[in-house]
NIPSNAP family protein
Amino acid sequence: MPEFLDVFDRLAMPIQLKYLGAPVGFFVSDIGALNQVVHLWAYESIADYDQRRTARDADPDWPAYLQASAHLIVAQENRIVRAVQFRSLGHLDGR
């Protein structure tokens, strides 16, 4: 995990920030299945998601991260989730 976090911080995060903005959250597992990373990014729409990720993937520095992290990633799962609005939470919008 320390090696992955270092590689991500040095090589991926600057590019992610450039195209995706700051993450909503970045977490590592502490209890349960270990050595898992969960990071959440907010998008205005599916079109916004597509545009930002396409731009990130076209960045000439992105392949360096993919190559440096390839041996560290065993499985990856991507999900699109939608914020739920609860009146009881007031202004909370899931971001």
